[in-house]
Specification:
CATH architecture of the largest domain: 3-Layer(aba) Sandwich
Largest sheet: 7 strands, mixed
Radius of gyration: 21 Å
CATH superfamily of the largest domain: Type I PLP-dependent aspartate aminotransferase-like (Major domain)
Strand order of the largest sheet: 4-12-11-10-7-5-6
Helix content: 40-55%
CATH topology of the largest domain: Aspartate Aminotransferase, domain 2
Number of helices: 15
Bound molecules: pyridoxal-5'-phosphate
Distance between the termini: 33 Å
Number of domains: 2
Number of strands: 17
CATH class of the largest domain: Alpha Beta
Length: 397
């Protein structure tokens, strides 16, 4: 079956993903995925930080089935109970007062840019520039590509959406030098995920908050990857103790059902008035039923606490492994269950391939950093399985 699927993909699907890993999953349960040939894989990437509940969580499925039996979509012309209830849950759980739902991370970030611009437009101050960071990743739409500080994503699409400026991460002076009287917002990931799990320093983030307050600039956190318990707190801004004016969510919010969110303080959110922004699908009854179920299950199963606890356990194990193999593992980074293992560039690809062959799914960022973002339901048993396998591979290489 796999060969037929690969043939169809190569013939009919746009070649944006090139040669994918040669596997096609047909079933998932908890921490594992089953391929069409019956082989079982442990999912240490969680659909790139999406499957926080693992696969086929019975309560998520029950909530979705229940919603499917009633209603999938109505449109934004009418009030939507789940949408209002999920907005309330997110606002009560964070520093935000109001929420807008989109369908993806990029779309949530687009909403955040529009809100920042609208905020200053309505104030009668035409500020249009947004400062972001090198090595960031904010999405694949034209504005989010312009925000993403990586040449490989920007180059083919020049001229880019104007107004986006990138500076070096964790360098406060670089931000100060980039600020002008046109700066509307500074947007950062608190832990850069896609480029290999690079955390921002607490002091740097605190200084950005002060700078934004002094200069009337909005601080935006892209929590598309770091949100929803990933870093050991429900939102990474709670880990840093710094409140943004706007933050965005997606990935784990729907447990696999597409949904994104723009979350903002009242004073900023008030800039959006009827007609200023909109969506067909965003926050529809099905997607927001998923979001509500995710938040219920987080509470019932204390998954955010588990993320913090298992993250500590995982990092302690990996740090011991690094002490044993200092030439092969260079650094362990991250918080909670967003973990980066910086590998010796000579062996990184081989380690990744061997883990895959042995049924462990991970990702390799920039050729050397292994990113792990397993489901938040993970237990010590699965962490031990992974670390033991990694140790065996490192010993052999
Ligand atoms: C921090 C961050 N922002 C935005 C995005 C884009 O999200 P999406 O692919 O849902 O558009 C991603 C995706 O990896 C991300 O990691």
């Amino acid at each position: 079956m796999l060969n037929n699927i690969i043939e169809l993909d190569k013939k009919y699907y746009m070649n944006t993903f090139g040669n994918r890993l040669p596997v096609c999953f047909v079933k998932g349960e908890g921490m594992t995925l089953t391929a069409d040939d019956g082989k079982i894989y442990y999912d240490f990437l969680g659909g790139i930080a999406v499957n926080a509940l693992g696969h086929s969580h019975p309560k998520l499925i029950a909530a979705l089935k229940n919603q499917l039996d009633k209603l999938i979509h109505t449109s934004s012309l009418y009030y939507i109970e789940n949408q209002a209830r999920l907005a309330e849950r997110l606002a009560n759980a964070s520093c935000a007062d109001r929420i807008f739902f989109a369908n993806s991370g990029a779309e949530a970030n687009e909403g955040a840019f529009k809100l920042a611009k609208m905020y200053f437009y309505k104030k009668g101050i035409p500020k249009t520039e947004i400062i972001t960071l090198d090595k960031s990743f904010h999405g694949r739409t034209l504005a989010t590509v312009a925000a993403t500080g990586q040449e490989k994503y920007q180059k083919p699409y020049r001229p880019l959406t104007p107004g986006f400026i990138q500076v070096e991460p964790n360098n406060y002076d670089a931000v100060v030098n980039a600020v002008t009287d046109k700066t509307a917002a500074i947007m950062i990931e608190l832990i850069q995920g896609e480029s290999g799990v690079h955390p921002m320093d607490v002091e740097y983030v605190e200084n950005l908050r002060k700078l934004c307050d002094e200069k009337d600039i909005l601080l935006i956190f892209d929590e598309v990857q770091t949100g929803m318990g990933r870093t050991g707190k429900l939102f990474a801004h709670q880990l840093y103790g710094v409140e943004p004016d706007i933050f965005t969510l997606a990935k784990a919010l729907g447990g696999g059902v597409p949904i994104g969110a723009v979350c903002a303080k009242e004073s900023v959110a008030a800039a959006f008035e009827p007609g200023d922004h909109g969506t067909t699908f965003g926050g529809n009854p099905l997607a927001t039923a998923a979001g509500l179920a995710v938040m219920d299950i987080f509470d019932e199963e204390k998954l955010v606490d588990n993320s913090a606890k298992m993250g500590e356990y995982f990092k302690a194990k990996l740090n011991s492994l690094m002490a044993e193999y200092p030439d092969k593992i260079k650094e362990i980074r991250g918080s909670g269950l967003l973990i980066g293992i910086e590998l010796d560039p000579e062996i990184a690809k081989e380690v990744f391939d061997k883990l895959f062959e042995n049924g462990f799914l991970t990702s390799l960022c920039g050729g050397t950093a292994m990113r792990l973002a397993p489901p938040l339901i993970i237990t010590e048993k699965e962490i031990d399985l992974f670390v033991n396998k990694l140790e065996k591979i490192l010993k052999e290489i």
